[in-house]
Amino acid sequence: MATAPDRLLRRLEWKLGRRLDGRLQGAYRTVWHGAGIDFTDLRTYTPEDDVRHIDWNVTARLDEPHVRQYTEDREMTAWFVIDRSASMKFGGNSGKESVAAELAIGLARLVNQGGNRVGAILFDNRESKIIPPRTGRDQILRIARELTKEQKVHKTTTTTDLTGMLSLAAATTRRRRSLLFVMSDFIGDPGWDKPLAQLTHRHETVVIRIVDPSELELPDVGLILVEDAETGETLLVDTSDPLLRGRLADQVGEREDTLAAGMRRAGVRPHRVTTDQDLLAVLVDMVRRSAGGRR
User: Fold this and answer.
1) Which residue pairs, CB below 8 angstroms and at least 24 apart, start in 226-235?
2) Whole-model pTM?
3) Are strands 223-227 and 234-238 parallel, antiparallel or unpaired?
4) Which of 7, 42, 89, 232 is spaced 20 to 30 A from 16 at the CA atom?
5) What does the pLDDT profile of the chain (295 residues) look like in tens digits?
6) CA pseudo-torsion sign 92, 119, 80, 73
7) Can you tell me the distance from the alpha carbon of 191 to that of 206, in angstroms, rounded to the nearest whole number?
8) Which residue segments constitute the domains of the chain, with CATH numbers given?
């Protein structure tokens, strides 16, 4: 009898095969690929080059910008860095955590084509799990089993340590340049932009921010009891109060501005995914945007 992870993977494979496989034919990679690690040559810088490849020592010596060229590996390693903190369990359609799981499994299936290796770093404040990268369908099933496994919710007095999650990712992937998918709601302690910038400097990094619509606009449903998913603190809220709704809207705006500024400092353009979106359409759009960015 097929297990739940196996049924989920089969369903995604059927849907993805119809919608995305044609976009990936004719290349040994997916639209995402990392830079190789083998240095081959130097040449003068052009506006289309990645500034991260500038050789500053040669540039200073010759008084003209030069970039390093690398040989691309035929195989790449992809890591899925997934926030599994308490706040990710919030939201419709089984929560943000469920959305992250389905996206990760679908993307892993795509990246795994052509013999590429996939691994995962699953993080919350209390514990983390690292699944070393391997190839094959069994590896995707292993990741799927971990992502769909029931987790015990631990109440804490602090929010998610996003810096700790990204620092763990940096330490785990330091030996090889890789493709990283970072999935989180980015509800946590400030200061995560610096370790995220370090990751983007070293690796090709795709940031996927998962949110629930009710986090962006409070629905008018009268009196409700609100619980902080991270700390367990509860509060009785009158959602029909216009003053309260106005204050919350201002706070959401400030939070969104702060988060956008952090992403800019880190040098990334995140994909924002909501829990009420069609995930297959999200995957198609991500492939289209990434392929367009390459061109």
Assistant:
1) 229/86, 229/87, 229/89, 229/90, 229/153, 230/85, 230/86, 230/87, 230/155, 230/156, 230/158, 230/159, 230/160, 230/187, 231/155, 231/156, 231/157, 231/158, 231/159, 232/155
2) 0.74
3) antiparallel
4) 89
5) 566 767 766 766 656 655 555 544 434 344 555 444 556 678 898 887 878 788 898 888 888 999 887 655 557 899 999 999 888 988 776 789 999 998 999 889 888 876 889 999 999 888 899 999 999 989 999 999 999 887 665 555 567 899 999 999 999 998 888 999 999 999 988 899 999 999 999 898 999 999 998 888 777 666 666 666 566 667 677 677 778 778 888 888 999 999 999 999 999 999 999 998 888 788 877 776 765 554 4
6) negative
7) 19
8) 4-25+74-294 (3.40.50.410), 38-71 (no CATH)
Per DSSP, helices labelled H in the chain are 4-19, 21-24, 56-62, 96-111, 137-148, 162-172, 193-202, 213-216, 242-266, 279-294
The Cα–Cα gap between 198 and 167 comes to: 9
Amino acid residing at 67: V
Separation between Cα atoms, residue 162 and residue 160, nearest integer Å: 6
Residue 276's nearest CA partner among 90, 92, 8, 89 is 92
Cα angle 218, 223, 225; round to 5: 80
The neighbour count for residue 94, using CB atoms within 10 Å, is 12
Task: Extract the tokens encoding 287.
Answer: 């492939």
